[in-house]
Amino acid sequence: MSPGRKAHHTAKWARTMTKWLVTYSRRTGAKWNLVDFGGKTKSEARGIVDLIAIRKDHRQDGPGLKRGDLFEIVLIQTKGGSAPRPKPDDLVRLKRVAKHHRAKAVILAEWKRGERLELFKLNGSRWLSVSPDEIFG
């Protein structure tokens, strides 16, 4: 398999495994819905965010709003195989996007064949390992 084709294959599997993990880690509360930004050929599209997990927030209401009017948003970037982690300028972009959309968290999902998918939460300029329940539970 050519390096480009291998990268496409592992990126696709990283997104698939992330979707599975988010879907099956929820125990209570509203269901997470996933938005995938893959292109026509299921390859990565432009932009820093690969997936968005979104659900209605039934816990609180805001001024002039009722419960369920607001959303919880988690931005997810996926990496498959030996793809490098985001660079410092990518972290700045992720933080700006998260602030703009008022995201609850920015997550890096790393998947390698034969290993468990690992989740990391962006905290400042570092990635901290987290369990799926901490973010999506």
Summarize the SSE layout with pairings.
Elements lengths: L2 H23 L7 E4 L14 E7 L12 E11 L7 H14 L3 E7 L6 E6 L2 E5 L1 H5 L1
Parallel strand pairs: 3-4
Antiparallel strand pairs: 1-2, 2-3, 4-5, 5-6
Can you give a write-up of this model?
The chain is of the alpha+beta class and 137 residues long. The protein has one domain (3-74, 87-136). The protein contains three helices and six strands; from the N terminus they run H-E-E-E-H-E-E-E-H. Strands 1-2-3-4-5-6 form a six-stranded mixed β-sheet. Strand 5 (118-123) and strand 6 form a beta hairpin. The longest helix has 23 residues, at 3-25. The chain is globular, with a radius of gyration of 15 Å. It starts with a helix and ends with a helix. The model has no long low-confidence stretch (mean pLDDT 87).
Q: Order of SSEs, N→C?
A: HEEEHEEEH
- Residue windows where pLDDT falls under 50 for at least 5 positions: none
Strand order of the largest sheet: 1-2-3-4-5-6
Per the principal axes of the C-alpha atoms, what is the gross shape?
Answer: globular
Number of domains: 1
Radius of gyration, CA atoms, in whole angstroms:
15 Å
> Quick check: average pLDDT?
87
Give the termini separation.
Answer: 38 Å
Number of helices: 3
